[in-house]
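Hello again,

I reread your note about wanting to compare the complex against the isolated chains. To keep things tidy I'm splitting this into two emails, and this first one only covers the full assembly. Below are the input lines as submitted, including protein chains and any nucleic acid or small-molecule components. They are followed by the predicted structure of everything together. The single-chain runs will come separately.
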Amino acid sequence: MPELPEVETTLRGIKPHIIHQKITEVVVRHKQLRWPLPPRLKAKLQGSIVQNIARRGKYLLFGFDHGTLILHLGMSGRLHILPCTATAQKHDHLDICFENQKCLRLTDPRRFGAVLWTPEPPEHHALLCHIGPEPLTGAFNGDYLYEQAQNKKIAIKSYIMDSRIVAGVGNIYATEALFDAGIHPERSAGSLTRTNYQALAAAIQSVLKKAIKKGGTTLKDFTRPSGSPGYFSVELQVYGRDGEPCLRCASTLRLLRLAQRSTVFCPRCQK
Ligand code: ZN
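Full-complex prediction:
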């Protein structure tokens, strides 16, 4: 599943090709993703110019003069930049073609992705209006996490994966950040100290930045018809390594289920 770094990498991969470009054609091959595609999408987009492209959490926002196209990659969505003439394959559900003869193509085998339209400022949209601060901005830091956590009994891992608290921290990076900060994933959010939260905020930012940097090496893949643009393997310290030795202390890493998500941790390094 694409997490924040993959979505950020996708943004960086496609933006230079389509920013300030006029849309010449829209082809919808499958009207139903997670939700139905916006009605009359072609009429809405054709002739319009992409004024800006931004990310909010795991949503991509394509800004036009008259509204915003909101796109979520879901479980398996991918975007490519291809020539307008490229033949569509089975899971290619949406093409947006531009005056420069390039096509933004959405491929999504599992169809959990989303394409939505809003004429309002996108931050007012129901899916976006409750999202917390972006983890890589100044609004997100240890003091903020600490203050929001007061009297909260939920497990720290669930707390940092709550998009109302912070945008776009998914299972992989939450698991890695907790290891990095030496915090047990089941600790209650309200029991952590300000110092814990400072370490945790720094760890979240560090793992996300490392992954985004790694994603930079895949940017050329966006213009290749095959492959998985925006997907890349980061060196993970704990995620997916249960039963293997901790890279710090050599204790056996353990697996637990927390809010229906698998979590790997080191019983010695994480308290
Ligand atoms: Zn350890």
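For quick reference: Residues 246, 248-249, 251, 266, 268-269 surround zinc ion (CB under 6 Å).

B.
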